[in-house]
Input
Amino acid sequence: MQDKPDNTKLWLFLFAVYIIWGSTYLGMKIATEVVPPFLLSAFRFLAAGTILGLISRGSERQWPTKQQVGSAAFVGLMLIGIGNSCTALAVHYMPSGLVALIVAAIPVWFVGFDWAFFSKQRPTIMTFTGILVGLVGLFLLFNPFGADHQSRPYPLWPIAVLAGGCACWALGSLSVSKLSMPAPMTSAALQMLTGSVFCFIVSSVMEPGAWNTLAHLSTRTISAYLYLVFIGSLVGFTSYSWLTRNAPPGLLSTYAYVNPVVALFLGWAIGHENLTSQALMACGIVIGGVVLMTLGKRKG
Output
């Protein structure tokens, strides 16, 4: 019988996920001021994956099979190569807090893909209600027909890119339970390294002259990069990994609606991102929709 986890440790790790994952959006925003998004993601996960791989060799000591390597590579392509790098691209063009809010609606993709390809379980009425509420909130937030559409200081096309990234993240996450995966830390390291290779390839095609930006790195850019590697990727992953094994699912799921609140606050307080009363109202509606989706899935 598994011992009940220490409450202090439980809340410490949960608080870490709340703050760290909520703050990575601003970290990406700052880092991509100089380095293009795909090249940034490539270097970020190359460093994090290498460090985690070295740690895993000393702690897990279990060499993965070819099938397991292939499975981890596929998941890494979906989650990091496409999912996370699309987020970095969107953050480069849009306010970091608003990007975090769109990502918070990712349960829509989980519900849809799970229903269509995995469990085949029909979503509950509460889940459907949550999806509709979340979509209404997003429409109010980014309404292309609104009076302020022409004066909006950012383009809307990154939303489509971000939606594709969220879809890949959900598909990759749902595939994990169906695949033969390596030990946890080894798996995470392989995923990061696969995502890094993919991002290097995409950067070489879509970001001409990207390597030249490395000559213009500032202390601000380097600090954001190091934060993303050591705090966002390593500490954040370690905390979340521990929580998946020790925290009640209902408590763990709360990060999905705390992260955007943290990101919105940091974007406003540090990134000087503007938040109108209409935007705050729309944010509340979206987060309310995410809460309903989470509760509906749990009851189903």
Observations:
- The chain has twelve helices and no strands.
